[in-house]
Write a structure and sequence with these properties.
The protein has 13 helices and 12 strands. By secondary structure, the chain is α/β, with parallel strands linked by helices.
């Protein structure tokens, strides 16, 4: 066999691979894990056949010692690459619209409290959303603001212990800001630790967790993963993921992806005008994220189409009025955050009924 003949045969193999690759790609609009595995397997198969041809040429015809050394080193690197499985972002289901209870049913009860979360679960929310902060003594707590006020003094959560944080009353704040839904029973509510939420609900609900300012809390990602493992909330075979994690901090999300790539990660954005992500940034995003969360007023049909064409879900925040919820459903967003999960679920059910007709 001559060297040129070997390359001719390899060319034929490569053409066959290209045809298989194109056929598979055309039948799958999105680049899924299955597609990636298929491509990797096909490349390895055809290059292995080429390696056999080249081996025959080098060893049996030319006996070129130098070429054999170079070839064998290259082959070892290639075969090692074939054994490595590419890691891709977790895939979210596309056949359901997710109602995410923003801090619980926070339009009706103090946010981030068990009462608010219980209310959202009874309403039928797909997820309860938790904002996480970390206290001075390393406790993960469900709380939106990094600075709270009690005893007429503003305190940074990172600078106080969990016990000290118990002096803050989210119920008093809610009652003052929401007289329509105020209740004296809320006055005794206190900030809840993440582990207490997990103890309360276990795996009976789905969690949508936001890491708030993780750069200010060294070790926050590790602490969260430890608790998710402790309560066996990862790796479950469920219709929708048991846990989704979001953050504005891309570095934090990438750290989580490196540790637990099976968790769907949502990159948060807050746009001043219409939402837009450059091609360069979008390419980086698809390496670790399963979707994006953006402020609702920035959502456009074009943005939704662009994100979904790249396999990314779109979850706008925080939408509480009927008109905007209907509009975003028309755009085809994959879910949304709301303080009024009862309204969102009602509109979701209406749309499902109309689509079924």
């Amino acid at each position: 066999m001559r060297f040129a003949d070997g390359f001719t045969r390899f060319g034929n193999f490569y053409a066959q691979f290209a045809g298989d690759f194109a056929c598979f790609g055309n039948s799958n609009a999105r680049f899924t894990d299955e597609f990636a595995r298929f491509a990797q397997q096909q490349l390895c198969f055809y290059f292995t056949r080429f390696a056999h041809i080249l081996t025959t040429y080098i060893i049996y015809e030319e006996r070129c010692v130098f070429m054999k050394k170079i070839y064998l080193v290259t082959l070892l690197f290639f075969l090692y690459g074939c054994t490595q499985q590419a890691t891709h972002p977790a895939i979210l289901p596309t056949d359901d619209f997710l109602v995410i209870a923003h801090r619980g049913a926070s339009a009706y009860a103090p946010d981030h409290t068990l009462i608010s979360y219980d209310m959202a679960v009874r309403m039928g929310a797909d997820y309860i959303e938790l904002d996480l902060q970390m206290t001075k003594d390393g406790k993960l707590v469900a709380l939106h603001d990094a600075v709270v006020s009690f005893q007429d003094v503003e305190q940074t959560v990172a600078d106080i212990t969990f016990d000290e944080l118990q002096l803050y009353s989210p119920g008093d704040v809610f009652n003052e800001e929401n007289p329509r839904y105020a209740s004296t029973s809320y006055e005794n509510l206190r900030v809840v630790a993440l582990e207490d939420i997990f103890l309360h609900f276990g795996d009976t609900v789905n969690y949508y967790i936001e890491l708030k300012s993780p750069a200010a809390y060294p070790g926050m990602e590790k602490a969260l993963l430890q608790q998710l493992h402790k309560f066996k909330l990862l790796g479950q075979k469920t219709t929708i993921p048991k846990v989704i994690i979001q953050s504005f901090d891309a570095h934090s999300l990438k750290k989580l992806f490196d540790e637990e790539p099976s968790i769907p990660l949502i990159q948060l954005y807050n746009f001043e005008n219409e939402a837009n992500i450059s091609k360069k940034d979008l390419h980086k995003l698809t390496k670790y994220a399963s979707g994006v969360g953006i402020n609702g007023e920035a959502v456009t049909q074009q943005f939704v189409d662009t994100m979904q064409s790249k396999g990314l879900h779109v979850h706008p925040f925080t939408i509480n009025d009927e008109e905007t919820i209907r509009k975003l459903m028309t755009f085809g967003v994959n879910g949304l955050f709301t303080d009024t999960p009862d309204l969102a679920i009602q509109l979701k059910d209406e749309k499902s009924s109309m689509d079924a007709k």
